Amino acid sequence: MTKEELKAALEKAFPGLVPASQAVGDYLTLRLPDAAQLLPVVTCLKETLGFEYLDMVTATDWLGPVNLDGFIREPNFNVFLPEGATAQAEAPKKTAGVEYRDAIELVWCLSNLKGRIKVFLKLDLPRGGGKAPSLVGHYKAADWQERELFDLFGVRFDGHPNLVKILTPDFTVGHPLRKDYVHQKDRFD
Amino acid sequence: MSSTQPLPHGLKSDQLFVNLGPQHPSTHGVLRVGLTIEGEIVVKAVPDVGYLHRGTEKLAELRGYPQCVVISDRWDYLSAMNNNLMFCLAAEKLLKVEVPERAQHLRVVMCELNRIASHLLFFGTYGIDLGAFTAFLHAFREREMVLDLFEMSCGARLTYNYIRLGGVMKDVDAAWLAKCREFIEFFKPRLKEYDDLLSFNPIFLDRTKGVGRISAKQAVAWALSGPNLRGSGVSYDARKFEPYCGYEKYDFEVPVGKDGDCWDRYYCRVLEMHQSVRIIEAALGMMAEGPVMGKGVAKVPKPPPGEAYAHVEGARGDLGCHLVADGNASPYRMHIRAPSFINLAILQEMLVGERMSDVIAILGSIDIVLGEVDR
Amino acid sequence: MSEDAKDPKPEAPKPVPETTTAAAAPAAAAKPAAPAKPAPKPLPTPVYNEADGRLLKERRLWPTDMWRDPWSQPRYRMAWVKLIVLVAVALGAALLLGEVGRFAVPVTSFLLEKGAAYGLPAWAPGLVWALVKIVLVLHVPLLSALVFVWWERKISAHMQSRLGPMYVGGFHGWLQTVADGIKLLLKENITPTAADTWVHRLAPAVVVAPALLAFAPVSFGKDLSAADLDVGLVYVFAMAGVSVVGIMMAGWGSGNKYSLLGGLRSAAQLVSYELPRMFAVIPVIMFAESLNLADIGAAQGGYWFGVLPRWFIFYPVVGQLSFLIFLIASVAETNRIPFDLPEAESELVAGFHTEYSGMKFSLFFLAEYAYMTLACCLAAAFFLGGGTAPLSFLDGFLPSWAWFLGKVLALVFCFLWFRWTFPRFRVDRLMDFNWKFLLPWSFANIALAGLYVMVLS
């Protein structure tokens, strides 16, 4: 199965699917119009197109450059730099032409192991209270990865059997990978 | 037997909750598994991770791309070369840098050497998990030689930072190549020794054959990768799936298990060492003179906005890196597909119904590195 | 060196030898008071890469270098010389000392004589003699533990291509165990809060006391046993069985779940392996027609066809089978790999002695090694002829205790060898192995032995 065939097959079955404006490398990247489309698309991919392997689930917060208060230490902390020296890497700034928006973009990567092809699915969720359907029913691998996204981004997954924190400690306030995360002082600082 | 089953004479039986970890000799780091056991049988297993979470994905959002290579060493510190390579491949896709041929060969040699070192450590620690102490030091003897080779090439023994954006840090000299060949010659007969010492030891077979079976379907559903997936009979190897660094030029096989039990996973790793030796020999033969650093990599690279995904076959499985750039000197978002993290999730399903001593055998055969699980 | 030469401190002028020639005299005068320091040892020349001046690791020895020609290493040659000297000294000492048992009669008569001379009551010399014997026999488990711990560390090290202890005491770290013992003595004695205090404290004593007591009837050579018991064999096994109680106490009293699991595993294992161990000895009793350990050893004197010793291990099939069963069950009884489930380090942290520290821990350790020594002494006495020589022409060359010691050492080596070669059994397999393999075969063995006895009589 080639990229074009797959694209044609998917777009025929789901007219709402469009190629994402920002593709992941050379891989086929499709954007879901809304969260409700996810499960039918994934079901079709898994059951008819042989994408049985969920490579990864990830997310990107498109709010804009990261808030420096989210880091515990000052950026580029380097004891060897002389007083007043410029930092080694400047703080990130907004770049013209990049679609910053008030959304968290979920990315699923599915593989067809026999056909040697990967497909990326993208879905925008609103940053406040966005919900996506959980894929645990389709791929058990989604279990911990969705918990990780819940922990680090605050994305809620409907239908996840055990959506609790996984990586950060209990006392962490907020979701560290959000761009506007501000670190709260805790007993270990 | 349920916990509520009444016993004669009014005695009552109860389940026992045991914390396996975070400080336990066999959890290979700070993993905690909450085990509920009924006698010696596990009724419920809840893996608890995050003790080593350092937030490296967040850290990367403020570090330059070359600095991120340094971070990448700290995930799977037992095969750091593969981590370096995985990040560099993703970043090179964004930067559109050509890597010279000699650097490609060097990357392959280093990654395969590191795979050998990592599998040797697995071999040794798995022996220890099952009570065979001698295998550990035999494996470490050879691993020490690999680390010596790394020390000769880049000065570091654990966190190498050797594979850089656009190539490798430094060329190796003829003395290094000679040493590497010497190691390979020394190592080949040792593989036979390992089989005699551990692989076909009757007690070892007894402990691992038929224990902790993962069916192919289950393995794919849980998205296992690396030897854990191949042990179950699914031939998925990133080196064959999407060859990188010129892996398509090398002639090697992907060892695949049959039953998906602990022994198959173990032996897949041993066979992978055989294949790594093959690849290294071929790569050393193909090594051409030339530069080891691609042209046009700035000191502070600022890739144009875009996204890239690169994945390599790490020692523990399919290591992937999803990079999002927005034109700044640091990645806008970096996500690591950590094979240990994903492989570990199956534990909650697998451990139920197993014996307490098999828990260790299964945990060891999954071969996790907590630095990568928690990132 | 030049700073030293300029040192203003007045120094005694060097006596110039009378025979100095005129040519050499000015040279000596030019460097008048060079202090007589030995030249510093030159540092080894580092090897650099010619291309970029990087330090090469050529000087680090790879296993390849070591294995290519070990005889080129002076230390390797020296070690062989030392080993040969050590063995020669040990043999010489054994030859000089001769049979130790012969001192018993003069010492007892001396004690009786002195007792009579000082008008002591009649039981006093007997008491002193008993105390002397107790002190002597206590040295066997205690010293053997000291030596075998060191030996085990050396054996394991050499099996794992490393050196093991090398510093303490000079020769191959032979004082390492003493140093470790001192360390353990100085460690804090921790009792966990959750522990059942008295049970926790008492457990090491309950484990170690029977281990030491069990040595009483063991015959270490001709006329060398502390108590010449007629039921010595039964006594030894009875004593060895008591330690299970201590291990269970340790498992229960520590207030640790892992310890509890270890203790329970241990109880199950030790109780079940007692059976084949006992049954493996029954053919020996049938052949020797005695329960006295010295008599069992003596019953194996003499040679078949003038060459092959009449040891029970050489009785066809029965001897080898019962020796194997006894050896396997003994390894299990001493909680050593491949049967170290009670203290399985990688599963149960350290099993029943997880919560023990300092001397309490070392008592468990001592008991383990004492039981290992005991098992080897018993196997040597039951199957390897006790103090008899292995070949007829060697009879009388060395005293009987030296032959006995040699056999015990060989058996201990086997124990160490097993430990550092095998992985660990699984609990259910362990039980299967015992109940479905060892026990039936030991029964069959007894039947076979009965047949032999019938035929021979």
Explained architecture:
Chain A is of the alpha/beta class. Chain A is built from 3 helices and 7 strands, in the order αββαββββαβ. In chain A, strands 1-2-5-4-3 form a 5-stranded mixed β-sheet. Chain A has a two-stranded parallel sheet with strand order 6-7. Chain A starts with a helix and ends in a 31-residue tail after the last strand. The model of chain A has no long low-confidence stretch (mean pLDDT 83). Chain B has helices spanning 56-59, 65-72, 80-95, 101-129, 134-154, 174-199, 202-208, 216-221, 227-231, 238-241, 262-286, 339-344, 347-350, 356-366, 370-374; strands at 16-20, 32-38, 41-48, 163-164, 167-168, 306-313, 318-325, 333-337. Chain B has a 3-stranded antiparallel β-sheet. A 3-stranded antiparallel β-sheet of chain B has the order 6-7-8. In chain B, 60% of the residues are buried. With 457 residues, chain C is mainly α. Chain C has a domain at 191-456. Helix content of chain C is 60%, strand content 1%. Chain C has helices spanning 2-5, 24-30, 63-68, 74-97, 104-117, 123-159, 176-186, 197-213, 232-253, 257-288, 293-298, 318-333, 345-348, 358-383, 400-419, 427-456, and strands at residues 303-304, 308-309. In chain C, helix 8 (197-213) packs antiparallel against helix 9 (232-253) and helix 14 packs across helix 15 (400-419). Classes of the chains: A alpha/beta (189), B alpha+beta (375), C mainly alpha (457). Chains in contact: A-B, B-C. At the A-B interface, strand 3, strand 4 and helix 3 of A face helix 1, strand 6, strand 7, strand 8 and helix 12 of B.
Summary keywords:
A: 189 residues, alpha/beta, five-stranded mixed β-sheet, 7 strands, 17% helix, 22% strand, B: three-stranded antiparallel β-sheet, 15 helices, 8 strands, globular
Which protein chains make the most extensive interface, counting residues with beta carbons within 8 Å of the other chain's beta carbons? A-B, 55 and 50 residues
Order of helices and strands of chain A: HEEHEEEEHE
Structural category of chain B is alpha+beta
Helix content of chain B: 40-55%
Averaged pLDDT of chain A, please? 83
- Biggest sheet overview of chain B: 3 strands, antiparallel
Beta-strand percentage range of chain A: 15-25%
User: For the terminal residues of chain A, how far apart are their CA atoms?
Assistant: 53 Å
Low-confidence stretches of chain A: none
Mean pLDDT of chain B: 86
Protein structure class of chain A: alpha/beta
Q: What Rg of chain B do the Cα atoms give? A: 22 Å
